[in-house]
Structure formats: structure tokens, C-alpha cells
Amino acid sequence: MPGSERGIRVKRRDKAPLYYGSWKTHVVVHGKSTASSKLKKSKRKLVVLKAEYLTERLGGVMHFAEAVQADKSRVSRWAKGSIPDERNSRAIIDLEFMYQRLSRFLDDNSADRWLKSANSFLSGKRPIDVLHQGRLVDVLSAANQEEAGSFA
User: Fold this and answer.
1) What angle do CA 75, 67, 46 make, to 5 degrees?
2) In angstroms, what CA-CA distances link 102 with 35, 37, 95?
3) Comparing C-alpha atoms, which of 29, 1, 26, 2 is closest to residue 12?
4) Which CA distances in Å does 97 have to 37, 54, 132, 143?
């Protein structure tokens, strides 16, 4: 059986061991999926890079902490290499995505004002507050309507 002589056990998604390749397989070495652990590490690095970008973009740790609703000390630890938890990672990813999206049609100062001002496409709520609720799609829709020149 191919693969078994090298100590690589291949599993199918239905948990039945399989010692030959198929489209539903992934390699498991010593009980851990090598592909998923590499992906998790690279995702963590990406979140840290986004946090660094937002810290610089927003003008410091204090403003960044306010934007993602986190403690200033926690944000300082992220700057030193600590990994944010899942909720904070999502907040960082969403906020960075919106800044990148807004940069397509607004300058930096206008993007800041847009995120922090009441928005008629969001029933008068501030986009940054809607992002904190985890409603990225609604904020993205409002940005798309703003770019298209729609009126609410």
C-alpha cells in the first residue's frame, strides 16, 4: 500500500483509514494535520500584520484599541507578538478589510469620518458600531451604495 511504508497515514473525511490517494483525503502525521497547522500559523501571522497596519493607520495603540473594542494593554501585547483571540481576530480582519475597501473611493481622513459618522444606509447607526456587532456584510453594502452614489 503506497504511503504506509513512510509512516504517513491517510484518512478520509468519513474517518475510515485509507492508504491510497483520493480527492477526499488529507495527510495526518502523528495525529495532526500538517496542512491545517501551517494554515493556522500563517493566519495568525496575517492577523498580527493587520493589527500592526491598523495601529499605524489609526495613529497609535489607543485609537486602534478603541476601534476594535479591546484593552490598550492587550493591543500592546499584540504588537509584541501575542496572538489575538478569535473574537478580536475577527474584529481586526473586518476593520482592515473595510479600510481597504473604503480606500478605493475615499482618502484616509474621509474613510475615518465615514466609519465614525451616522450612516443613512445603516438606519442612522455608525458603521464602526455595526462592525462591532459582527455585521460586516451590512457595512460593506453601505460602502457599495455610497460608492455607487445611491441615496437612502
Assistant:
1) 55
2) 33, 33, 11
3) 26
4) 24, 10, 14, 12
Distance spanning both ends of the chain, measured CA to CA? 64
Q: pLDDT tens, 14-65?
A: 554 444 444 444 444 445 555 677 777 788 888 888 998 898 988 899 999 9
C-alpha cell belonging to residue 5: 511504508
Distance from C-alpha of 111 to C-alpha of 122, rounded to nearest angstrom: 16
Q: How many residues does the chain have?
A: 152
Q: Which long-range contacts (CB under 8 A, 24 or more apart) does 117-122 make?
A: 120/152, 121/145, 121/146, 121/150, 121/152
Q: Which three cell numbers stand for residue 126?
A: 455608525
**DSSP states along 84-130:** P-HHHHHHHHHHHHHHHHHTTTS-HHHHHHHHHS--GGGTT--HHHH
Please report, as a single letter, which amino acid is at residue 82.
S
